[in-house]
Amino acid sequence: MKLFAVVSVGLSLLSIINATPLDLTKRRFGQEHTKLADKTYQAMKDAVKGTKFEEVTGNLSGEAVRALLAKAPTCEQQDVADKCVDIAHQLGKEVSKDREKKLICVCQTYRKLERNTPKAGQPSKLCDRPPRNKELKGLVQAQDPTGPKTHSTKKSHPTTTKSKTHPTTKKSHPTTTKSKTHPTPPPENTDNEAFKHPVGGVQMPLIIKLVHGGPDGDFQVLNSKFQQKDTAHNRQCDVQHNLCFNKFNAGDRSFQGSDCDNQNNVCKAGPPVFAK
Ligand SMILES: *[C@@H]1O[C@H](CO)[C@@H](O)[C@H](O)[C@H]1NC(C)=O
Fold first, then answer.
1. Count of domains in the chain?
2. Could you tell me which residues come within 8 angstroms of residue 149 by beta carbon, excluding any fewer than 6 positions away?
3. Which residue of 45, 59, 87 sits with most ligand 1 atoms within 8 Å of its CB, as the best mutation to test the pocket?
4. What domain range is 88 assigned to?
5. Considering the domain boundaries, does residue 162 fall inside one?
6. Do the domain assignments include residue 124?
7. Where is composition skewed (Basic residues) in this entry (predicted)?
8. Ligand 1 atom nearest residue 56's Cα
9. Looking at 70, 96, 119, which one is the last position of a domain?
10. pTM of the full structure
């Protein structure tokens, strides 16, 4: 899946320090449109076709386009996604639960779209407040996988981290799935220092426990599903690590790159953090 690719490429690039020189003069995508974004706007409208929500959703899809522009306020994408979920809830009450579910899926996809930034490779800021709707909890936008990841002075050895923590087993072992379809739901545990006091305020994506995650597993982090809680835990820590470096490389010097590394260890040593 495309978003999975974006995230995983971003993660694996962590290990390729000093990779390619970046063209900082142009944006990653010329404007707010990518194929996935366009599909998402259309899906939003399709989800309410034939209902009284067509107009409000049509308007929202316009807002959705603007919210991905580089100059849009930081939380605009999340706010649009929240409005999208609001509409979905209305749709559920007045039309059908099935259509509500479909639209919520689209809202979630929209929330995870990459946002434009003024320069290629520049990370987009994360919204610093939680979404209103629980369906959006823990979701953040994807980041430009061509972005700079770290300075060459970085001391640690992410290659060793990567081999351990970056699961490439997404589609694997459907045979083992049966026994794992209904694990006891883990309690929400936020007692992880990396969650409670994130370096630079850069929060980790939360693990969403799915009831029927399908063969890919019941533990979801952003757009990836995992069969094992621990693998999902590692992923949430690695995404935070990546975003932490993005912020550092964007010029934030309120912390050091090594703080991101240390936090990554703390994160993995602590408990996984679940969305409610
Ligand atoms: C949609 O936008 C138009 C133009 O701004 C506005 O007149 C209309 O009231 C909006 N419709 C809804 C349902 O929000």
1. 2
2. 13, 14, 16, 17, 19, 242, 245, 246, 249
3. 59
4. 28-119
5. no
6. no
7. 151-173
8. 13
9. 119
10. 0.49
